[in-house]
Design brief:
With about 500 residues, the chain is an alpha/beta fold. Helices cover about 40% and strands about 15% of the residues. The strands form five sheets. The chain has a six-stranded parallel β-sheet with strand order 16-15-14-17-18-19, sandwiched between helices. A four-stranded mixed β-sheet has the order 1-6-5-2, with helices on both faces. It binds adenosine-5'-diphosphate. Adenosine-5'-diphosphate binds near residues 8, 356 and 380.
Length: about 500
């Protein structure tokens, strides 16, 4: 379990360094000592080795001291940056009003400087920096604009963009907190329509940038999906790539999942039938094995395309279909779902809130799982569905396009089909994809079962991702050594 979490980034930050070990890469994880993490350490009676440096860093005109808690016995090693004023707060990034904390630039400038200062303290034993999202996007900037100039030390950096929709956008005057000169605040630097854009700085100054799927790496270079950063991304396309996330198989495994009423494996799936029955019962729907049971688990956000589903369901309601939805978020989308459940009480059941055990039961108990996202950097739930033999029905975008191959009989026979997909974000197309899936379920159960069994064996473990990251790290280290050798020679 991650030390602190607001979303998928925490899972990646925990799972990737662990998987990298298998490829000979030794990482140190740096993270702020957020309240969640602090509580966990206190609860477990852990303090780590406390290190305090004897010099401060300047954040604006305030000298801030540097304190770390080092857990060197953990594999990988974790270094918490301790600064209670900045990090011991109820949420990592947002105040009670749901807006960014007013001092977020200072908080993450401090974090980035603290990381660099620790590395200097341990004598530059680090070969490469891997930064994630806007929170650490200043690290590549500091490496090039501060540390390389001050110390002559060149270390390569990689920036991973998990969702371009969150760029870290702040008023221009907050540049002061970073200690950087105004010469970085230009059209081809940190400036974005008069504001400070931290992610943009990372994109410009990192030696390589990647996103969490190959298709999303292409999509964010277009006006539809680039959220205003498409120009800068296209300009830097030679250093941009996509590497799919993996999923945590210790947590998502139908053979051992403690949240399921019955466990099962691809060779014996009778437990899946039991999961379906119990889920129908739990969600208050008629318990029938012949019905086509469709599931959705999602943040209720426009990004997730739930509006399409609300419209599409009316078009397929004539089929013997049931729908279960678990979600939390936008009030309007919740109301739409409640209306749908009222219109189709025998067919639709919705549950609002964040409920991890129920999420596992839905993934296991459903026949198919819908993700009609407008955009999806990687997406995890379609991969969980595969693992549980639940056929994903997705819009072909971002990571969904990279992980789900649309069913045809031929593709199934060639071991290629892994779900159903549609291209345009239109209710009619979603309805058609669900109807195609339902038709296969009703009329050709042998093929349906073959598909369901096949997807359970797909490999979405972190190994493939970790290998791709290890390769990229190596390239960056070698290129930096060559360039710095050339410039010294
Ligand atoms: P995103 O990170 O954009 O929300 P992902 O598909 O990458 O989408 O990851 C979402 C994760 O959150 C999945 O593990 C999903 O099962 C889980 N999830 C989303 N909403 C809920 C909920 N209401 N209850 C339980 N789990 C949820």
């Amino acid at each position: 379990m991650p030390f602190s979490k607001t979303g998928g980034l925490a899972d990646v930050a925990q799972a990737l360094p662990l998987a990298l070990y298998g490829f000979g890469v030794e990482c140190t994880i740096f993270t702020p000592l957020y309240r969640q993490a602090k509580k966990r350490l206190v609860d477990n009676g852990q303090a780590g080795e406390r290190i305090r440096l004897d010099h401060p860093v300047w954040i604006g005109d305030e000298a801030q001291s540097l304190t770390y808690r080092v857990f060197s016995h953990l594999k990988p090693q974790v270094v918490f940056i301790e600064h209670d004023w900045y990090y011991d707060r109820s949420h990592c990034y947002l105040g009670v009003d749901g807006q960014d904390y007013a001092d977020n630039v200072a908080r993450y400038a401090y974090f980035s400087r603290a990381v660099m200062e620790y590395c200097r303290y341990v004598d530059d034993a680090f070969e490469l920096f891997h930064a994630h999202d806007w929170q650490s996007a200043l690290i590549p900037v500091y490496l090039k604009k501060l540390y390389a100039e001050q110390t002559g030390c060149l270390k390569p950096s990689l920036l991973t963009v998990h969702n371009i929709g969150y760029p870290g956008l702040f008023p221009a005057e907050q540049l002061y907190a970073t200690g950087l000169d105004w010469d970085v605040f230009t059209h081809d630097g940190l400036e974005y329509y008069g504001q400070l854009n931290l992610l943009k700085g990372g994109i410009v100054w990192a030696d390589a940038v990647n996103t969490v799927s190959p298709t999303y790496a292409l999509e964010i270079q277009t006006a539809e999906q680039g959220m205003g950063l498409e120009g800068v991304l296209a300009h830097h396309s030679d250093k941009l790539s996509g590497i799919l996330n993996g999923i945590d198989y210790s947590h998502w495994n139908p053979e051992t999942d403690p949240h399921l009423p019955a466990n099962y494996a691809s060779r014996n799936r009778s437990g899946k039938k039991a999961c379906k029955k119990i889920l129908q019962y739990e969600m208050g729907l008629p318990v029938r094995s012949s019905v086509f049971l469709l599931g959705v688990i999602s943040r209720l956000d426009r990004q997730k395309g739930i509006d399409l589903l609300l419209d599409a369901f009316g078009r397929i309601a004539g089929l013997d279909v049931q729908l279960v939805v678990l979600g939390s978020g936008d009030r309007k989308i919740q109301n739409g779902l409640t209306d749908l459940a009222t219109r189709f009480p025998e067919q639709v059941s919705v549950e609002f809130g964040y409920d991890e055990p129920l999420a596992h039961r839905i993934i296991a108990g459903c026949d198919a799982f819908a993700m009609p996202s407008l955009y999806e950097p990687c997406g995890l739930t379609q991969m969980y569905s595969h693992r549980y033999g639940t056929v994903p029905i997705v819009r072909a975008t971002g990571g969904l396009k990279d992980t789900v191959v649309d069913y045809t009989a031929r593709r199934l026979n060639h071991g290629q089909a892994s779900g159903f997909s549609f291209s345009e974000a239109q209710p009619a197309q979603l309805a058609e994809a669900i109807a195609r899936a339902a038709r296969l379920f009703f009329t050709d159960r042998r093929s349906w079962n073959k598909l369901s069994r096949w997807i359970m064996r797909l490999d979405h473990s972190w190994n493939a991702s970790a290998e791709a990251y290890a390769r990229l790290y190596q390239q960056l280290i070698e290129t930096t050594q060559t360039t710095s050798g050339a410039s010294h020679g």
